[in-house]
Amino acid sequence: MTPFARRALLFTPFALAAMGGAGFYGMLQGMKTGEYNPRGVPSALIGRPPPDFTLPALEDAGVPAFGSAELRNLSGPVLVNFWASWCVPCIIEHPQLMRLQRDGVPVLGIAYKDRPADSLRFLRQHGNPFRMLAKDEPGRVAIDWGVYGVPETYLLDRQGLIRWRFAGPITQEVLDQDIRPLLRRWA
Question: What is the pTM of this model?
Fold first, then answer.
């Protein structure tokens, strides 16, 4: 090995550390200005219709099931919310979903990997914000949508195209800063 190659190998760890540090600094600056969202995972479905699916209803919930056929040619924007009774952040977001329902915003729910009895108990205890509700016990439809955890919410426009995705609980801040402006935009 030549002396030049040895020197290059000696400085390689320093160069890698410097690049990692620069990347970390850039991420911190982006978080400071709001340009980098550490929770944001882009969805390949944005601007596209949801995958084809048919799901059964959550029996005794008092609302019909839905599938991809019901998400085509909508009368206005709708929210599709993946949730579960065992999900603690779902409890945090539930008052916002109830508020949206009272405001007339169609919220469609998919109970993800949840036992039907537990889903029904959750809805009886906290209220049912869902205009339509289906169950995805095996979680296959959620995988097709790109869901990696609950709660996760998608906004569809009147043509049935996915326009926005949010992973995590819908808080009052998310409702005011993201959802309400998007609902106005896609109305």
Answer: 0.79
